[in-house]
Request: fold
Amino acid sequence: MAGIYLHIPFCKSKCGYCGFYSLPSIKLKDRFLEALKQEIDQRADYLHGVTVGTIYFGGGTPSLLDANEIRDLMKRISDHFDLAKNPEITLEANPDTLSLEYLQALHNIGINRLSIGIQSFFDNDLQYLGRKHNAEHARQCLVWAKQAGFENLSLDLIYGLPTSSADQWNSNLDLFFEAEIPHLSAYALTLEPNSILTKQIELGKAVPVNEDDALRDYDILCRRAAENGFLHYEISNFCRRGMHSKHNASYWFGTPYLGLGPSAHSFDDASRQWNVASVESYLDTEHRNAGRETLTSEQTYNEYVMLRLRTHWGIDLKWLKREMGERYSAHCEQQALPLIQQGRITQTREFLYLNDQQMLFADGVAEALMLAN
Reply:
């Protein structure tokens, strides 16, 4: 099955740490929505009739759209694509945009998976990150989401914050597990080159990030997740059995997907293309597409290695040999041998994978297994 991603590029304001493309204004929203519908129409053949199993509204802040606007986009997609019987339809939401009435409306139009950007249940963390909601409202959103009928819920939390401590991070996780939410996305605070927070730190106006704090919190996270029966299925993602994000997993498994909206990427199993990272340029059809590349067999192999090592499924050596040939499976096994001996990668039968601690160095391990293009 294929996936469809829609990038909604508007926010009330830019969070200090954010590196994703978005605008801190909704003044172009109406024109953007018309352009987005137009792109859906124009790219109706991109997936070649493959059934769509997941739809994902990301951003930006998709929850700035009202329920009718989201419903109209879903209707446009269903008019052009063959949807699975019960597709996973995810919407990312910021707490400051949520109310019980709005969540009920989302549930009524068919959104069946909600990802809420809580980031922290403590006000000092939220203020450091530049978030607009407070801790009390964050907790209230979880109550509303369940009242509205959402069972497939995910929360985002950020760790490694200089405003936090081991005790406070444990308390964040206590609140998460007590809420009985089936999915957690937890990210170490990363300083993007041009983010507001990076500039504030450089100017001495914000407390610097300490890598040791992130390592400490990551250890706590992995231990607490295992104790509570959560599967660590991707570097930053944890879930109850069967509650992983099907849409995100499709990226890691190399499933075709269509990306709609500014800065969105698409993949058709042989090539990748991407849209311009500008709403203004996106409104102009002629300047919408920013680039396209056909993947070489070496690139396909390298991406398989990089993406699968991020997950608990790992690299399937039998699949490599069957689908890509002896050259690639033999290279992978040969390059993996010293890494296995060094304890940097684990092998179980025909699979190579990383355990919790090894995942911290996934990029370096992947690089050691790759082929030069």
Remarks:
- The longest helix spans residues 211-227.
- The longest strand covers residues 83-93.
- Residues 44 and 81 are 7 Å apart (CA to CA).
- The mean pLDDT is 95.
